[in-house]
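Sorry, explain these tokens?

___
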Amino acid sequence: MRIAVPIALVATLAVSAALYFTVASDREVSLPSTLCEGYAGLPTSVSGLPGHGMVRLGGGEFTFGSDQGYPEEAPAYLAQVDAFWMDRHPVTNAQFARFVEATGYRTQAERGLTEAELGDFPAALVKPGSLVFGHSPDDPGWRFVEGASWRAPEGPGSDIRDRMHHPVVHVTLADSEAYAEWAGRSLPSEAQWEYAARGGRLGATFAWGNLEDGKPENMANVWQGKFPVMNLALDGFYGTSPVGCFPANGFDLFDMGGNVWELTSTPYRPGHDETSVDNPDGPEQGYDPRDPGVPATVIKGGSHLCSEDFCFRYRPAARQPQPVFLSTSHIGFRTVASGP
């Protein structure tokens, strides 16, 4: 069953399997420059090294936000984050499948919503399913599809057998937190995510630098053409792409712009609080001003549906609210860990 989603809700949604990690010591393990099609989706596990599949970031000062982007990105100010580890790429279907196999976990899309979670949204959303973007030229846009989940990204009849190295999607904040807890990690704060995305290029517009450093279609999985009616797919992908198909940023992190939006632990409020300078973690509660009764968290990085003329949010400073209990076909996550 496919149910049209109100535009107000849509606005909120907005080759190697080798070991790759950086250890907190004087020695750095060699990192492959790309992953993509030849990657199985599972980082190699090494006993006794807690950072497998992760990169250690030393922390430091960075410009948080932007005064040249969308209003909710302002004001820009200097903030500080401590050292932390971060997944080198978004959590893949292969990684999430391993978690589900170990725990028997069922995602919110597989369970459905409660009446309390539903709020003022269409009653049909209470059923198991998720929001899927349809690429039909005659009727492009978002639909709630019964039976859509991380296992069946387009709904019944679809599967992930050939997408194990793609980012897991159709996950909510609770789903991603459950995975992170199982892995002994957590979700990044917005500040951690933005610091990581900037890759040391603190004044650059994109995770890879500026436009003179590379065209978006060569650097990230984003939309080329007039959204939503024409996707030229100059980057080679119409939907999600395998992780690591585009160059890593200055911190050796993949997909810090485009492919999928990524959930953070920071509750959403419009703009930034300049008084929170050291390891800012945002307000205690978040909301989307267009739906103030619905709790929302910050998502970062943009997705394959972001274009220059519609959603110019594949930039480190960009941010958007996401209802905490709704999942979509273009939102995933990665995890972080503390430690030396």
